[in-house]
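User: Round two. Same drill as before: sequence, then structure, for each protein.

Assistant: Same drill it is. First protein:
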Amino acid sequence: MQPGFFRRNGLSIVVLLMMLVAWSAQCVTGYAAHNEELVEHGHASLRFGAYLVSGDFWSATLENWESEFLQMGVYVLLTVWLRQKGSAESRPMEDGEEAPSKVPAHLQPKAWRKGGFTRWLYANSLSLAFLTLFLLCFCGHLLGSWRKSIEVARLHHQPVESLVQYAGDPSFWFESFQNWQSEFLAVFSLIVLSIFLRQKDSPQSKKVDEPNSKTGT
């Protein structure tokens, strides 16, 4: 009997639901915090719908998404060329240790069988997708933060920067770098901790009876 829908998709469903719950909580708490700031400066509070299209909301959202997609895209690419002895996240130290593909030609994805540029695009589609999502979120973060800076400038009766001027503002890059460094720290922790520590039945971990020197899953 074929496994049910949840059995086949449980991991993605649960993680997506966790993300949506956290994002919803961000919407509610961000809305409350933003209105508190408006009231403190003698301005009328926003309606919830207006907040959801504001620079404040999208700046906060996309600066986090941006760093996640950057982390994953860079990590996918680095694992192609670099190794870490003993880490479950690394390919084997020697290329010859990797088992060759034994998938029959008729079962291989159509894009791979076509060859040429289509094969190259398919073979690199994961990193390309992550880096494209990063660029889209980076541009969205820049636009959202710029709109937020306009709102803040008006609250304090200060001059407004153009988008080009804001793109060179240290506050924008501070928002980005504080998230980027935390993502790279998380990846570093996973790479190194997977050398010594285990989680039974997780594909992110080596088998519990394998030595620390074993590289790869």
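Second protein:
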Amino acid sequence: MNLLLINSIGRQKWGGGEKWMVLAASELIKKGHQVHIGCRINSVLEQRAKEANVPVVRIDIYTDFSISGYLQLKKLVKKHGIELIIGCQNKDVRVAGFMSRMTSGPIVLSRQGVQLLNKSGKYKWSFLPYCDGIITNTNSIKKEYDSYGWWDDDFVKVIYNGINDSNISDKQLDLSRYIPTGIENPLVIVSTGRLAKQKGFEYLIEAASSIVKQHPDVFFFIAGTGKLEMTLKRQVHDLGLDRNVHFLGFQKNISELLNAAHLFVLPSLYEGMPNSLMEALAHGIPAVSTRVNGVEELMKDGEHGYIVEPQSVSALERAIEQLILDTELAEKGQRGAEHVKDKFSIDKMVDSLEIHLLKQISK
């Protein structure tokens, strides 16, 4: 197959969708396919793709009616013999789909790690005509989309994200400089993600305020960058949590950080299939997660940790407290690791993706 994966996300942004794109491209190349990633130049996505030895091409799509993006795609399709395009943003799909319709070009699919459509006429008439199918990573999104009645049952394909065991490090990040001397058995709670409203860190910080009063040897570490960094740091300071809550900034090797954790918390307001939670479970770390898309397919409440309602500080407090006091913490972590490695392996993801794409091309 000759494939082009495009993502017009901002230059400094990096998240689950971008991780999926680089991983999928890299693994498909290993299976003998020709794959290019199209993105903005000097972006984090471009850098990570090159680090993974995935060929990168420049794509400039800033709006749904991008003339430059249209011309770039038309030229790339002809030059590389592209048979299928996967777009990660709605505007990517619209521009690629319009180009394809005008030139009798390649199949155009939309890859959606989070819900990007709703039952609105604007999507039925401005998105659907330019899209040949959707790939998502949760049954909950497929169920929602299929309820619109716009397509047959095969239009939305669920392909779970995959975890790469070989990326799990045997090293552990040293967090001792953040922990006061004299504390022999600190309990480390980790949360990762963009410092944005979607990720719900403000609720986690508020929950931490009550937890550390009862458990002063519990320490929270938040890894990530984003627009809310100063706001969240101010919240930590105002609540008197500077001793127990620390921001680590961007961490390139999340595995080493997870190896230092006893618990993981995902306080998000919405997600698709959260890669950060999958990675934590794969490392054998019990988790507390909000009940967002994909989580109930990824972990079992009470068995691998606890699932709580979004935006509920009290629910986060209770669930974290339960795990802090749990005498079977290691067993929960082990069960979570076995579950994720069995159901969400990278091999299963890539095999399912390859079969689906070949089927699309052969139609």
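The longest strand covers residues 34-39.

User: Perfect.
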